[in-house]
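tool_call predict_complex ligand=NAP
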Amino acid sequence: MNTQYLLASRPVDGIAADEHFRAVQTPIPEPGPNQMLTRTIYLSLDPYQWNRWRSDPDVVGEVCHGRTVSQVVRSNLTGYEAGDLIFNTNGWQEYGLTGDGISVFGYMFPRKLNPSIAPISTAVGVLGMLGLTAYAGLVVQCAPRAGETVVVSAASGGVGQAVGQIAKLLGCRVVGIAGAPEKCRFVIETLGFDACVSHRSEDLAGDLDAACPDGIDIYFENVGGPVFDAVLPNVNRGARISLCGIISDYANDDFESAVANWFARGEPTFSQQNVTAQRLSVGNFVRDYQDRFLAEMSAWVQAGQVTYKEDRWPGLDQAPSAFRAMMAGRNFGKTLVRVSEDPTLPSA
Ligand code: NAP
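tool_result ok
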């Protein structure tokens, strides 16, 4: 049988709870013409899933969406055979059917994975949507120059870790913003950031001022709320801001107003300081930058110049708890669920 997690009710407010998810058992499906049956190995949990569930009433009753790393069990699709490892979108279930050329947010699925380049879990992390988000928002939108000061919030998270490390490779001074002291230590000691300040400080704006003696040239925004307000007084004239996410408002009853306020709060600074601030929709960059990103980022990862921390949860039954923990900031690194055995690992 196939264990699946369905979206039981549309989350209209508040934060994810058990009542939003329902586990069911269904027969493992048979692949039709031009389809393959795949076994989910890793399921990616991402804050955007929450927004999708909140905004689309049609997804109630469906298998919860999620990007996955899977292994082909049986294939009727030319070019794929049993045993192949692929990046696809099985969602929150143990087995799924995959056809050819399915496009989600501009990504084409499936994509074959080569475990000799990097561990296959990176396809849902640093070599997947998260890495491309960091690359598109930093390298493409903000065009960093050596010597500039880059600040990134949610610095120890999936996107933040990649942003900071790429900025270091490009010769920038990099300052992270994170919550817990161990997250701040991690981004300095393991990821090589120059400094990290905690958003739990009573004077975040003052701490940023001290950590950025030459001001802020680039801000990669993942959080919104008071963190955004503390950054704005410290940005330099002509700074660039990539508005990537506002996770502090994802549980807000009126999310659309929160997004509008996000822009409105920044607007006086943007106009007075001649700041370029652009909302980042990574889907817009997939077609134009995916190949360049994959080539450059794979080389950095293979050379050990970009590293990554994963927050792994064992078993599909952990997915609701893992999702809640991530949305509450209790994750440490890129959140993913190991749904079944990874055949590329030595213990497998
Ligand atoms: P993540 O950073 O791994 O996890 C979220 C982190 O956000 C938590 O660990 C927590 O870190 C921080 N956080 C949560 N609530 C907070 C609050 N109220 N105040 C301050 N920090 C808070 O998640 P991710 O997947 O890498 O995503 C990061 C951001 O990028 C999200 O906003 C996401 O929606 C956005 N994103 C956007 C796109 C796009 O196309 N625009 C694509 C991918 C991701 P601390 O413990 O350090 O506070």
